[in-house]
Design a protein that fits this description.
Length: about 100
Amino acid sequence: MNTVVFAGFLKRDYSLDVVTINSLIKGLFLEENVEKAVELFKKLIKDKLCEVDEVILSTMLNGLCKCGNVVNAMILLEILEEENCELNVVVYRALLWMVFAKVG
């Protein structure tokens, strides 16, 4: 469903903001559609659809970790560090989940 919504935004030339993009990415993860979430994130960066901030990065990291995609989450964490993004509660929660998932 989120893919259809996103395509509609692009087709109608609506401006996409951080809230809209974040909602779409979060929805894709909730639908367990990791590939589409990553695809949307890459398109966001490539086409500069909106500013990538710590909220979107946190959503991606959290979604990837919860779906068990720790390798891509670690790559994303490196991006966070390179961009000097402030880590928030969601990021720390995702990081803790990764650590305990590896231990357990």
